[in-house]
Specification:
Distance between the termini: 12 Å
Radius of gyration: 16 Å
Oligomer: single chain
Number of helices: 8
CATH superfamily: Aldolase class I
Number of strands: 8
CATH topology: TIM Barrel
């Protein structure tokens, strides 16, 4: 059985005690931290920037998985790289030279991913799969935490799994949106490698128990 990575999202953390919440999920067994970056333009919400990430980097050695939900990732990715992230994922829906951006991020020594919204088909990123380290399937509309899982996204995960396996691409699948103990098995069975979960873990009375329940 393959190893599944759980990436708690700090979007659901207590921002007045961000480092403490990160340490809490680290102690609960998390290996990644998912950092949702929103600019108020690409999505209708504003979160954090590289200054906060740089401060948070001092509190933990966990793998930082930065999801840039921003209109101009080509302008800001390097700031997040310098702040200490290990993976930068940007959206296929943005207007930029995606191949160039992928090359630039990888050349800086970190991993790169492409995210797709629920309405974006797999065919839109098919040609990029050989170039990237991760594809992020959004199972909610990006922008806010606590939304319900869209089960009709499951075929998209399965299609990506098939494409990656058949072509032996060095690319993993991450799923983000409404992940809990009910929906995690659906995603894992469909082919997910990484599960992003926010409020289900961070708002739980026992975060360690909640995190482990995603792997059952």
């Amino acid at each position: 059985m393959k190893k599944i990575i759980i990436a708690p999202s700090i979007l659901s953390a207590n921002f007045a005690a961000l480092a403490q919440d990160v340490n809490m999920v680290e102690n609960a067994g998390a290996e990644w931290i998912h950092i949702d970056v929103m600019d108020g333009h690409f999505v209708a919400n504003i979160t954090i920037g590289p200054v906060v990430v740089k401060s948070l980097r001092k509190a933990t050695n966990l793998f930082f998985d930065a999801h840039l939900m921003i209109t101009n990732p080509e302008k800001y990715w390097l700031d997040f790289r310098k702040a200490g992230v290990n993976l930068i994922t940007f959206h296929d829906e943005v207007k930029c030279d995606k191949r160039r951006l992928i090359k630039d991020i990888k050349s800086s020594g970190i991993k790169v991913g492409i995210a797709i919204k629920p309405k974006t088909p797999v065919s839109k990123i098919k040609e990029l799969l050989p170039c990237i380290d991760l594809v992020l399937v959004m199972t909610v509309e990006p922008g806010f935490g606590g939304q319900s899982f869209m089960e009709d996204m499951t075929p998209k995960i399965k299609k990506l799994r098939q494409l990656i396996d058949e072509n032996k691409y060095n690319c993993i699948i991450e799923v983000d949106g409404g992940i809990n103990s009910r929906t995690s098995p659906i995603c894992i069975k469909a082919g997910a490698d990484v599960l992003v979960s926010g409020s289900y873990i961070l708002s739980a009375p026992n975060p360690s128990k909640a995190l482990k329940s995603l792997l059952i």
